[in-house]
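Supplementary Methods, section 5.1.

A reviewer requested that the exact input to the structure prediction be made available. We therefore reproduce it here, unchanged from the version used in the analyses.
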Amino acid sequence: MLNTRFFRNVRLGIKTLMLHKMRSILTMTGMVFGVGAVIAMLAVGEGASKEALDQIRRLGSQNIIINSQKSVQQAASGSMRVRMNIYGLLYDDLDRITQSFDTVERVVPAKLIRGTGRIGGRSLDLRLVGTTPSWFELVERKLIAGRVMTPHDMQTNANIVVLTEHGARKLLAGRSTIGSQVRINQGYFTVVGVIKSESIQSGAMQTPDEEIDAYIPLNVAIERFGDITTTRGQGSRSRELVELHQLIVQVDSIEHVESTAAGIERMLSLFHSKKDYKMSVPLALLRQAQATQRTFNIVLGSIAGISLLIGGIGIMNIMLASVTERTREIGIRRAIGARRKQIIGQFLIETVVLSVTGGLIGIGIGMLIPWLITMFADMPTVVTLWSVLLSVVISIGVGIIFGMYPAMRAANLDPIEALRHE
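The structure derived from this sequence is encoded token-by-token as follows.
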């Protein structure tokens, strides 16, 4: 009985609204754009945040990345003719970190050398990365062809190289990839595998790889290229001595990452008075990015909420006008026995129908806009279920909150005065 009465009132409310189609459509416009803005803006924010969070997670939440860098004093003297710059991580640092911390599972070193790879008439500037097989376990990259470095390659000082997809396409176009001989500087290396790289740098976050990387065993890199690199410029020549350019430290659990990083920082400061290294902790960056995402979502939601507020005010305005227009109708209904709560219910149903209909249309538009942004602007967007459910709840809430005053005003009209209204 109650359900039948409710649906009858809903049908009556829809019929009443259809008597003024254009006015009802214009009234819903505020809700349409408000809800659409909420979903679209949150989808854009969620997509951007998800991309950044995924990049950080791929660095490894249990990893600590330490990079060599010139100290402030050495960077300031870069324009001068310097015989030798000595800076960065040491082989001893690798041993100290491995032996001094129980929470460290393993440490992966990397030595970076600039070189030129050649096959026939093709050449490409490469960044040689001398490292160990564990690098490919800590930094997850998709294997496209062949294999990665193995412990056997390290034991035998094998002249093998693992190229990135970019390097393979540039150097090996039209050739068989695996087994090809690549000349790098003055040495020849056999290509045993191709991996997909991910070179992204943003603020404090930097991936350990670049698209022009070529991976060789660390002991081969030390033997063939040594620790000293020479850079020639116009009328000058600079030399640098760097033992290790990078260390990736894997900690046994997430709970120990930040404390271990602090311990490593204290230890390195004892042996590097010039602060010639930079430490990145992906876990700390992940937490910071998540906090930024929450702030970003609140800001976007607040901006879109203003549109919903305007839509709600529009609904209240129209319903107040409707109360004035239907004063005589309200008086007749009260005269034949309608109670105040029935009048309130009827006007609330009409406002909720307006707001929910506008909200549903807004949801459709809000889901379409992110899709168009992804298609034409190539920006990642993510429409979440909670943003859609939030929009539905907001639509109903706006209808009830902004419809309550007009409904109460209609219910409180004096029946006799209402019947006299022309």
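The chain is about 55% helix and 20% strand. These observations are discussed further in the main text.
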